[in-house]
Amino acid sequence: MTVRSTSYSVNFRNDFHLPGHADTFPPGHYDILVEEELLDGLSFPAFRETAAYLLVPGRRPGTGPAEMRQIHSADLRQALDRDAQTIPAQQPSDGGPDSTTPAQGRNDEGRWLRWKRWTSTLASLLPR
User: Sign of dihedral through CA atoms 115, 29, 21, 82?
Assistant: First the structure.
């Protein structure tokens, strides 16, 4: 069985909650690790997600992840959608690159889908 791991990053502008976890996560940058296995018996390479993890950062900046929490990708997409539709709790007033309005919010789900397509295309180009 061929297994691969991919990772990507998401940003939350507000506190968020994921089903299956009692606590609320603070806004910020989070890395996501996805494990997939190759589906056998097809005429083209295709992968199925077997697990996804949210890497929760440590309390101090630069200390790396404090823990890995298993999540469902669908729950993460819903949390990102809710975050994109919510006005940020604190919005920078300097007009810098982090200044966004809900209409200008990041489309992390779109980035995730582009990443998935890119990795699938790359995998199909590699020799077996």
Answer: negative
